[in-house]
Amino acid sequence: MAFPSLLLLLLLSAAFLIAGGSTTLRLDIHHRFSATVRQWVESRSGTELGWPEKGTVEYFASLAAHDRALRGRALSNAPPPLTFSEGNATIRINSLGFLHYAMVSVGTPSVTFLVALDTGSDLFWVPCDCLSCAPSASINYRPDFEFSMYSPNMSLTSQRVPCNSNLCELQRECSGAANLCPYKVAYVSADTSSSGTLVEDVLYLMTEDARSEVVEAKIIFGCGQVQTGSFLDVAAPNGLFGLGMEKVSVPSILASAGLTSDSFSICFGRDGVGRISFGDRGSSDQNETPFSVNKVHPTYNISVIGMSVGNTTTKADFSALVDTGTSFTYFADPAYGQLSQTFHAQVQDKRYAPDPRIPFEYCYYMSSNSTVAPDVSLTTSGGDQFPVNDPIIVISIQQNEFVYCFAVVKSNKLNIIGQNFLTGLRIVFDRERLILGWKHFNCYDSDDSSPLPVGTRNSSRPPGTFGQGSYTPEATKEPGQRYTNHSVDAPG
After folding, report:
1. What angle do CA 107, 108, 110 make, to 5 degrees?
2. Which domain holds residue 382?
């Protein structure tokens, strides 16, 4: 079956939702290895690309390598919710470094960008008046579509952000008569960075209600004149959309302007397609836990107080970053050892010898006699259970030979709940109440449950079964740095 163009697909897949009288804005999400994105990427060259086949050793090794590259060595009375005017589809792209992307339009006349989504950074930036950017001519995906460039001089609604703006974090680096606010986003690994000046312009959004009205939101973003490292080709060649907690992020700006509630949700489907909704505060039947917020360096961290594998429950005491930008889940000892060894003790299948190509330590031969993998869940602060829908990943070793692996990678330092633990859930980042919410959800269905803030929560979850999840990347800001991201430890 022939796939439609990406832009048409995104427009057709835009969904609108009315929940308790409030409106949300959302985008569909596609994984970087999805068939839709593969077709779109291959259309630029007219030839098939040598992508790893889903479920193979090479497939999972590629995702783990991606995590290491980005993480480096450290591993109501709400306004109408909104989604991007190009549709709420998010997609995943194999040949690029981030896992999930969305189409956004800014400026007058509007210019459309394919931006990487990242809950671990804050600033939204696009290539602009480029001195060093990914060459658009070399990354055209279709004859009628190419990666865009932005220029403040070409937009009738663009304004430069002055150094005295309260969103200018690098005021001390201002220089010259132009009085333009500079920015810099830097990743530790591979000398990857984006720098330029801040601008204000229109971001086009769409209400998620029956009227589907266009909203022209004035937002601050980066005019990215200089990109280095993987931003030139594999990470975010057409820009990055930060979803973090800082006041310069788009969710923060939308909330401060009264356009949405200070909350958004992301839903990851099992086929690599997902959706993001700005202003979505979740529903009364969701589970939730408070964020553990560091005021100096706020991120989406939660506290884990227990871990369950099958009928065995152990106490725990660690903080984990909920990271939509990381492919896999990473735990450091003692949490990693407790969880993985408890899982291993309940598996009856023969263990597969450690393979340096596979990022997971505990893998087992799969046969017709294989037992069902034990259920896995995390007990969060407040007592709600965070379910792991797919605690295992099935990998094709060779023709007709498969192993299944416990889908957690050992980290040197940081604990990260990555996208493989988030798949099949609608994850709500409620920054107003400072809680993380979740519930089992079909990413393509409208939510007919009651909106927050009242109601009971359901902690039921399905039993663990063999299956394949889908995955994603992210970054966190170094304490004391401004608009600067660093990578987290992802050894393996």
Report:
1. 65
2. 287-486
